[in-house]
Amino acid sequence: MTDTLKAALWMIGAIIAFTSMAIAGREISHELDTFEIMLFRSLVGVIVVVTVAGASGAYRQINSQQLALHGARNLAHFTGQNLWFYALPLLPLAQVFALEFTTPIWVILLAPLLLRERITSIGVLAAAIGFVGVMIVTRPIGTPLSPATVAAASAAIGFAVTALLTRKLTRTQTITCILFWLTVTQAAFGLIAAGYDGQITLPSLSALPWVILIGFAGLTAHFCLTTALSLAPAGIVMPIDFARLPVIAIVGALFYAEPLDIWVFVGAAVIFGANYLNISRAKTGSQKHHTDAEQTIGT
Question: I need a labelling partner for 241 at 20 to 30 A (CA). Which of 218, 266, 270, 292 fits?
Fold first, then answer.
């Protein structure tokens, strides 16, 4: 099994976890604001990471050698995730995810600056095709630009920076170390942001299971994503996440009576085509030039 295929399998786990987190986030959005959601999510994550690391002995892998890079990565994620949670109850789930799916485009554009991974014609073509698919789903022409739409689109930039800095961290840091600093720093960010006014709403008994689900799903998603990024370049891994689109569209239709039309699936088909192009060419390139592929987006 090639590293590209292994990365794709890990991304399936990330897709399930991210979808679960979206459902839970919408369910408690009426009770907690985005900063409070991030605070409690991160606290659950801290407990899980410390418990697992202590039980497995992986706590020895936690170090402070890349604190500045961890901080930058987690600040980018904290910003993107708050924007995402803000948009979640205000837009159809499929639209939130579709706007988020501009992330791979930002990954391809920013990778040369942050990772020095070169852009190839196939990578650019795959990004362009994927973007067309997103436009088919959202059909933004003639639609008023709402704050929620801007937030969802801006979240994609934060997630792209997160993915690229995660890829950079995996070169020197273990997944346990990355997840530890992810949860700890974001708990601190959440405490500051949620408590700046002196008031932090505690989750009710009915909301508590959803908060716990967000914590576990978020941690699982990052474990799967980080593992995938340790196996393949960010420009190859991130487009796989497009598979969340038809999944969340069906969830929105079944549980929230959100409209589901043929254009969602047309756009998804275009996006899948872009994924297939990117991943299949990357697989071919990795077999021919394994060493060079580590520095390449697309092939």
Answer: 292
